[in-house]
Amino acid sequence: MAAHGTHHGLLIFRGASFSSPRASVCVHALENTFESRKFDRGVEYEESRSDRQEGGGTLDTKEFLKRMVEATGVSGYEDSVGKIIREVMAAHADEVTVDTLGNVIALKRGEGQSRPKVMLASHMDEIGLMVTKIEEKGFLRFTSIGGVDQRTLVAQEVRVHGQRDLIGIIGMKPPHLLTPEEAVVAIKMQDMVIDLGLTEAEVKAVVAVGDLVTINRNFIPLGGDFAAAKAMDDRAAVAAMHQCLIELKRLRHTADVYAVATVQEEVGARGALVSAYHIKPDIGIAIDVCHGEMPGVPEQDTAPLGKGPNLALGANIHPKVFERLTELAKEHSVPFTLDPVPGPTGTDAWVMQVTRAGIPTALVSLPLRYMHTSVETLSISDVKLAGRLLALFVASVDREFVEGLLCY
Ligand SMILES: [Zn+2]
Hints:
The protein is an alpha+beta fold. It has 11 helices and 20 strands.
């Protein structure tokens, strides 16, 4: 989620196990059987126990997430993480392509001749730092790429991506040496330095102005199914798309689904703009993060963790796409919460909506604590539930639904 994004009051809604008027939707992803089922519209789908147990592919969604958040991909420089995503998504897609800006586009085709296009967009770029100056004695000055919270930088271990990666730390004056005025204010980024423990000459042999810096942080498993890491925003959403493609192996769908790991969201949602223009989808769904409940923040401004994905509604969201998502969630007992967003969502959904002549869009969010820090925390079950809901949605889209989006 880009730093300017605003999320407002939230309502909580738990998915209930009952049938809505959409009971004829031909999807069913929750059971472990070898059965082939026929639904009201005569569409069949099969599922197997082996799909469920093996995660339907080579890598479990949580393992995939761990690999992604430990990789590097600052906005505009997403190659490393993009390569991982390309390789892993290929196991679940008919084809994977990369466009000029670096967006990774995994296409899973639907059945039949009349196939609507659904585009999913989760950004793979992360906020980070960039070297601006190499000082005498080898200290590095730096600036930020995207909305880095500078208060969280002091005392961090960092990785400087020079000709080879170097480990450094962000140092600061010790408390003994602070003036009384300095002691009560947060240190500014412009006053911080990166210390590599090397001389100026040694640093200059490896590092140049413009090199990237990321926080050196491994995936941290917490209690229950919670986990913390850098870049959960928004690689957890890429993991949700991965889960969606796995779930779609057990569902019949006529829609072609384009799962796009977008670039440069944190610096202006630029990857989603060009990929939506290229794909020209009938429906676009962005998957991003929203503020999760945490101490010190009013409950109505956050969404609870572990209670399923959060669905936005407001000007950025097509009412019929939103309605279909909530109906499917209720029908298939996927819990969810709601987030009324009156204005810009600060996500890829905002640019997708106004691409070409306009695209009906929706936003599925993952509740996340401590956004834009290196300890972004979320629930893995929310990631998987979001993936399931996206799969149910894709499987429910047909030509009739797409044409119905024009009249509301
Ligand atoms: Zn963000």
